[in-house]
Amino acid sequence: MTDVLGNTLNLQYELLLPEIILAITAVVVLTLDAFKKELRVGYNSLPFVSVLGLVGAAVATLLLLDNRGNFALLIELDDFTTFFRLLFIGTAAVLIIGSYEYIERHVSHVGEFFALILLSTVGAIYMAAARDLLTAYLAVEVLSFSLYVAVSLAKNDPRSGEAALKYVLLGGVASAMLLYGLSLLYGVAGSTQYAEISEALAAGTGDVTLPLLLGLVLIVGGLGFKAAAVPFHNYAPDAYEGAPLPVTMYLSATSKAATFALILRWFAGPLLPAVDDWAWMLAAIAVATMVIGNLVALQQHNIKRLLAYSSISQVGYMLMAVTALAPDTGVATSGAVLVHMVGYLVTNLVVFVGVIHFYNKTGKEEISDFRGLAQTNPYLALTLTAGLFSLAGMPLLAGFFTKFILFQAVASADYLWLVIVGVVASTVSLYYYLQVIKQMYLYEPLVPGRWRLSATGYLTTGVLFFFMVAIGIWGAPLYEVADAAAGAIFFV
Amino acid sequence: MGMEQAWVLPAIPVVLFVLIALFNGLMPRRGDFLAILGMATVVGLVFLLLLDFTGSFRAGEFVPGGSNVFAFDWINIGQGFFVIEFSTYVDAITMVMLPVVTIVALMVMIYSTEYMRGEPRYGWYFAVLSLFVAAMLTLVLSGNLIQLYLAWEGVGLASYLLIGFYWERQSAAEAAKKAFVTTRIGDVGLLIGIILLWRATGTFDIQQIIAAATSGQIDSTYLTVSMLFLFGGAVGKSAQFPLHVWLPDAMEGPTPVSALIHAATMVVAGVYLVARFSPVYAEVLVARDVILYVGLFTAFMAGTQGLVSNDIKRVLAYSTVSQLGFMFVALGVGAVGAAMFHLFTHAFFKALLFLGSGSVIHATHRQEVEGLGGLRHKMPITTATFIVGSLALAGIPIFAGFFSKDEILHALISDGPAWAYLVLAATAVLTAIYSTRLVLLTFFGKPKDQHAYDHAHESGPAMTGPLVLLAILATVSGFFVFDQVGEALGLAGGIGALVYLDQPHHFTTLDWTFAAGAAGSALAGVIVGWAYWGGDAKRAVGARSWAPDLHAFLVNRWYMDHLFQAIIDRVILGLASVVAWFDKRIVNETGVDGGAQTIGYFGYRLKFLQTGKIPNYALGMAVGVVALTLIAVGG
Question: Which of A439, B157, B246, B414 is deepest in the core (most CB within 10 A)?
């Protein structure tokens, strides 16, 4: 089939099979929830069907492993796409398995909740897979709108509505900036196709430098909001605190990773020829993010807000690496970003699933509520400790290996000063992680008595714990996979 | 089982360690049979490996660093800038170590089923034994220094856990700590050596480092310093002066552990390390001389201390330190073959002696020779095997120790200074004397503690079985050096040729005159021992009152522990209080706390940017965009 411009379009729908499965599953889940009385199905069927759909999507992804190509010039199917498909599907599965008990008790409109998670996963995947600015923008909005709603779904928590309102209003501002930036970029390059933008920018921008710069500023601002980079981060702690815990986890995991997938696609692909125009912007934002994220985290008393700031500082580390995407070491650097992203995701999920199960038991989320956990639930205390140490970058855990790879890549791209800022900031972070660990190990519990996690709690934390240690002591396979995925996004 | 599959050997005990440590509560007999079966499998595989190795070695197909290497990249950072491989490497030195480690470990495990029966943490005991074997096998198979270092620390950890196995006992916990801290001092030296070598060559691969060092690519002073640091690691692990103080205390662990770790295997890791780098030590003769004199001094000093100790296990511990000194002397004159051969025979007879002493302790619950005596009537098998072990230790002909010790003395008189030979020969006589003394005081004479004697009984088959097997090995393992014996066993070329890689056919005949001299001095030592401690040991008591100061000097271990304690008290603690003051006032209160307060203050101020009001947040975003635009357009 050809379009009006005479381009030949490839319309193999099977290339989109994983996302089609996810979308259908979302519809099925909504239907099940709406007719649960008539169909006589219980709550547990909703997470079960959702996970089934995710497994189906994962299988479809693996079946498409060797297919390369694009769908109608809009969606690119390459190693990078496959990498993120598996990552996002896995994250969604962990979220659902690890927190379905929480969702039943603390989330209103459970059917919509699962459907929104599944649909936002589709959006996240297309952010990584788009090869056209408009497709990418639509994918961003699919993810964002799902999340705006999901943030508001906490049952009996007035903070939830407020958080959602802030998030949607400020998100609207950010979307407007992003869209305006993309329009300017289209004006400069004359196309929305990544490949053509790359060619146009490589040919020289001459008279149109100013619109290009303005466009880049707005794009960086819009993406900075989605990634929660300073100074576009202010909404994040409020949204994190107000949202139901699984949504907080999703915001800090999939939403962030998807934004970085998009950032890598754009800055390593179409925008790479203009690297001199944007590298300093990202460097400035990265420094501000690392410094402020870590400093403000020192003052937090709520575990969700603490993790919000901690994830902001992680964004700083990754932005720092995007700055260093200079062409000759670019593949290694973006591979390092992917490695760190996986390490961060696994670690972050360990901590969040642990916190969710802690909340299931106690209904509390202040850091001081964790006192004495080592006595009441030593397994959970150990898991959380390992997770927090990994976030701080302690050796033998994923966080150390991936951060080391990341910093090493940035250093070898001649951005040593950025690495120094990163290392110092990262040292500060150990302090606030240790605050939580101190509560768990050095104080007596308020309510004595042992308790256990549910079976799915042990399962999810156990599997994630295994991966966290496995990546920490033998990260080479992950590194190779990430390198292959990163190699796919460069045009030159 | 070819040489490339050698990684299977440590893999089996690793898996068993995890399984037994986690699930021993669910297993029948707490999983001890699993550990033993696994170990027996490993012993079998070692012999298959031996056949493959000798086969290809004799056929001329053995290429060092060639087909025998199994490797994959463990960490590769910066496109080859910093690569750590996991690799196994097999050569003659490895092939001497493997049977030693695995056979002794198997014997010790079987023995432990009876010795440790009914102990708390029985399953954990076998799990840690498996961990130890895994780490030790990784160590001797390692093709690169990082892996070697990890395994080196792994055996240290297992040793720590086992010395402190009875951690409820204060002395055991103290001894475990002492062993760990003392060996750590050496380990730091090893690590520094590894880093220095890496800096000079850019690789951790042992064979590449040896190639670079022997081809003169490294400045010789730099190389000497690196190799001395490396030897520092060996000094700690192999309990050489001045880091020897931990080994006698390590006897707080269960006796089978002493046999496996603190006599036969872990403590020879230092010998192995130096032997592994012997081509490099041949380039840096200053470092090699240091090894020679450290070994010589240690051998003599520990020998004299063994003469007066009253604890049966401590006598054996001193003798271990002394015999390790012998091995380092051999390495110090470049006689790698002799050192490895003594390591090989020593492992069997010293494990035998320790297990024999364990049998005595098990039967009497006494380990002071003052409470023993006359046990030959009650424990015939233990007595007979213990005598075999002692004769081997003393260096009496036909027993294994004779051949290997003779070999070291021969190497020393050929390539070393004459006075060194005299000292070592005197130490050999001392060895014979204290071995005889130990046998006489334990198994002969009159029972000194009638109660303990009455309750004594021969141990069961799970303990005497390994004793008999080890006694056989302690007798015959010396003959292995002769090529003819090896050929008769079906190993083309013989084990002797294998041990003596440098001079393959060195060992068809002995230097009989020299050997006769050595045998004579050993016999003389036995006779002296008999004369002094035979019967009711009148002469020994007389000697003690004749030179009380000397006796006190020896009993107090040459006042070495006192000296160290004084150094620690005066110098180190004095210096530490200065550093502590600096750390508290300057570093901590001014630097860290000041820095932390500053940082905390900034965090506190910045917190108030978080107002919770939407217009403020939107303003923040707008400021960000405008600022970036201004810089973009202006800059």
Answer: B246
